[in-house]
Each structure stands twice: as structure tokens, then as C-alpha cells.
Amino acid sequence: MRHLLQHLIKDMTGPGHDEAMEKARPSKTIKDRYGNEIEICKKCRVPVRLQDTAIKCMNGCLLGCIDCAPNEFPSPSNSYNPWVRNTCQACGGDGNEFFQEEGEWCVKSCDTCQGKGSFVVKKHSEAEAASLSQPLPLDVDDKGWTRCPGCNFRFMVTDPNVWQGDRHKRCSQRLTYKS
Fold first, then answer.
1. Higher pLDDT residue, 80 or 156?
2. In 3-state terms, what secondary structure has residue 18?
3. CA-CA distance, 55 to 157, in Å (whole number)?
4. Quick one: pLDDT at residue 145?
């Protein structure tokens, strides 16, 4: 049964369907002289890399997009100073460094980020974290609205998306009030 379906699909798509699909791709995969695979733009003949959510060649040809970029949320134990992801400036975030050797493109792992493409660091410095740990008083009106003394943002203390009970999620400032 499976062979019959494969035969029918081949008849419907034609004998050159796979070749036509390969020709339609804007890039091709090659191996460099060290055995590493490199994606090369067919138009410009330069390496392709991931830049945020866009797949572009080094000359800027847009070859595709990915649906979403990685997003990290603060953990409950570290809500005021969450780990945030910073893109490596040396490789642009894809973890590869491209270079030409005798007219051929070659690739190596980025020395700055060790091929990871990004760094995970604390959102606030130690000095900022210390100042954010000092509680500031909140003035809450009878409807539950207040204005953060740290960032001047107006919010309701009953909103769990903005208020964690002791910290303002937007600026991470520790706040106190009497309910």
C-alpha cells in the first residue's frame, strides 16, 4: 500500500519534482576544506546566517524567517534580577565566524561566545540590584491604583501581570504598602 501511494505521488508531482524544489531554494549547502557545512546564498555566493528572526546572506539577501526568537522569562526565585540573553556582537548570534581561505568560504566556531551565539547575563548590575532591594513606599488610592516611585508607571496592585506582591515587575523595584 505504501509503495502504491509513493508511486501515485511521484506520478502527480512528476519525475523532476525533487530537483525543481532544490533549484527553487535560495541557498545551497556546501562543505568547506575542513569538512564543516556552510549554507551559501546561490545569488551572492556568500554564507548565510541567522540574524534575529531573519535568515540572510552576508550581503543582506532575505532568504527566510523563523517564527519566533527564544524568549526567557524571569524565574520566581530571581524575579527582580532575571537572566537575560544578549546576542554575541562578534558573530551576530549564529555562533559562527566565516572567513575566506584561498578564495573558498570556511567557517569556525565563534571564539567570543564559544559557538553559542549569545550570552546569558543578569539584567541589573550589583549596584542596581542593591538599590532595587531597598523598599519604597506606595500610595494606593481607594480603588487600588498606584504609581510606582521607581519608574512612574501607573498600575493596580491587584494586577498579577504588573505586581508580584513585593516588587513591580516592570522596573523590579521593591515596594511596600499597607492594604
1. 156
2. helix
3. 42
4. 92
Q: Give the pLDDT score at 70.
A: 45
CA atoms of 117 and 95, how far apart (whole Å):
4
* Cβ-contact 54, 83 below 8 angstroms: no
The CA distance from 154 to 134, in Å, is: 20
Helix (H) or strand (E) holding 121: strand 118-122
**Angle made by CA atoms 124, 129, 132, in degrees to the nearest 5:** 115
Please say whether the beta carbons of 106 and 34 come within 8 A: yes
Cell of 103: 578564495
In the block, which residue shows the cell 498600575? 155
Could you tell me which residue, 129 or 28, shows the higher pLDDT?
Answer: 28
- Geometric angle at alpha carbon 34, from 29 and 38, rounded to 5°: 20
**How buried is residue 168: exposed, middle or buried, by Cβ count under 10 Å (0-12/13-18/19+)?**
buried
Question: And the C-alpha cell for 32?
Answer: 568547506
Cell 504609581, residue located: 147
| Residue in this structure with the C-alpha cell 541557498, named with its chain if needed | 27
The pLDDT of 117-142, averaged and rounded, is 82
Cα–Cα nearest to 171, from 162, 145, 144 = 162
- The partner residues of 99 in beta bridges, in order of sequence, read 106
